[in-house]
Amino acid sequence: MENPPKGVGFLIAVIHRTVRSRVNSILKDADLTKPQMDVLMFLKRNEDEDHRVIQRDLENYFQITNPTVSSMINRLEAKGLIERITDSNDRRIRQIVLTAKSKDLLHRMNATIKEAEENMLEGISSQELEQGMHFLETILHNLQSKEEHKFDCHTC
């Protein structure tokens, strides 16, 4: 039996699951998941800017719901990896910052994460990577900008 052709969506889904599985196995010893590590890395990238990171920033950047972000923040805070600091001008706003423990963890994990990414991109030139990134960004833009069409089974 011949294998059916694999569509772009199928390949993206398989890549996503594979990356998530491999990264989760790397992070297992640190008692972290890939989404939790993604949040820590986002905070690290944004800690030097004059912008305070709040929960809504995480919701918008990762395109996940408020309850999902709240749950993740609560778990990271319970592990001592982040801290919520109340804004001195507006007590309703709570800035999310890394702790010394998470900064140390990120520093130690940096080489492992870099090696995993290099392995994933092995055999791909910088030009191919740039083209691939453009391709993926275009797909994302198309998905975000076009109305979703729902299947109407009443017309079947």
CATH class of the domain at 22-113: Mainly Alpha
Q: Which percent bin holds the helix content?
A: 55-70%
The name CATH uses for the topology of the domain at 22-113 is Arc Repressor Mutant, subunit A
Q: What is the tally of beta strands? A: 2
The major β-sheet equals: 2 strands, antiparallel
Helix/strand-derived class?
mainly alpha
Second rung of CATH, namely the architecture of the domain at 22-113? Orthogonal Bundle
Uncertain stretches: none
Query: Strand fraction band?
Result: 5-15%
Q: Give the number of helices.
A: 6
Could you characterize what this model shows?
The structure is a single chain. With 156 residues, this protein is mainly alpha-helical. The chain has a domain at 22-113: Arc Repressor Mutant, subunit A (Orthogonal Bundle). Helix content is 61%, strand content 6%. It has six helices and two strands. Strands 1-2 form a two-stranded antiparallel ribbon. A hairpin with a 7-residue loop joins strand 1 and strand 2. The radius of gyration is 19 Å and the shape is globular. The two termini are 29 Å apart. The mean pLDDT is 88.
